[in-house]
Amino acid sequence: MKKSLIALSAMLMLGSISTAQNVAFEEFDLDNGLHVILHQDNSAPVIITSVMYHVGAKDEQPDRTGFAHFFEHLLFEGTKNIERGEWFKIVTANGGQNNANTSDDRTYYYEVFPSNNLELALWMESERLMHPVINQIGVDTQNEVVKEEKRLRVDNQPYGNLIKAVKQNLFKTHPYKWTTIGEMEHLDAATLEEFQAFNKKFYIPNNAVLVVAGQFDKEQAKEWIEKYFSAIPKGTPIKRNKIEEAPITQTINASWEDPNIQKPMFVQTYRTPSMKTREARVLDMLSTYLSDGKSSVLYKKIVDEKKMALQIGAFNFSQEDYSMYIILGIPMEGFTQEDINKEIDEEIVKVQTELISDKDLEKLRNIFENQYVNSNTSVEGIASNLATYYLLYGDVNLINTELDIYKSITKEEIRDVAKKYLNTNQRLLLNYMPATDKTQK
Question: Which range is the signal sequence, renumbered to this chain (predicted)?
Fold first, then answer.
């Protein structure tokens, strides 16, 4: 549900915090394994209820991709006690908004209501978990919705298949090799029983975390949580096999044709460690140093000074098992992939052999402190962060301590991590170019 209502956006802003401060929370488990996190914020009469499930694209079968994203839509179809088509009517009639999103690692659902609707919100999420109606009409309806989303956001979008092109070349065995939205032929081929089995396996209380954040009475909230969630049966524990990729030891050269673009994009990508590691956070800082804004090293050199590219950028695509460090550029007429790569590689060699300045390090720390503050400026943002830190990182209190990790990163670490992961024999070089026959490969 990518398009959400905005009825309470003003209230959310009222419930914001403007400086880095401790986020207080309480957590406990129900007997069925559901983890619960409570965060009280009485600055505005708003309540957030959210459930994050530890299921994403990586939990799918190679011939049934797109299931997790499909369920992001399907679980709004209705429940035993909420008739088909009534979910959104109930939310809007009570002054609320809702949304959901999916990644390779997890799926997240949430509602935002005036605080006097906490019981309603908890009941609705418990209904989604305990009594979902998964039938053929719902599957057929959402199949068409997902197909249209894919057409709009991927197939007909310039550079829309960039991540797909990167992933399928960077990963050979790990399920990160396919995209979150998946392949439509896989959804078409799936039976109703397969969708029902996927729901039974993954959408269970012991594979989820419930977060309640905003203005509420804690004891009353606990009573309602017990009332609506404790009767949901515990599911069969999920066994996850750790799938490891062999190290990249020589450059991977690949190309992709996109009928929606006129200018090629040249991409360097390195497979990097889990977002849970300290090294991943160092890579976050490194990518910011190289490409954050027009004052960054790569932008100033390649775009401003040498005028070799229309755009240049880099980001650390953080994930639970592996991350991807992606550097990309759109060259000016007359410049080649080799030209752009040469300039980028020169700057990478510099950070591998020279320490960045004290001034640049302080700038990076300020940037990450600002990002931390911004990520926790609304109750909605705090709720998402609490769920993420519990489910994917295994440490809820990182919401208070992760900034300290970033601030403790040294210039030497930035140099050493660049030397460890950003080598020419450890990367994918992707030539993402206009289609010669206007058909996508």
Answer: 1-20
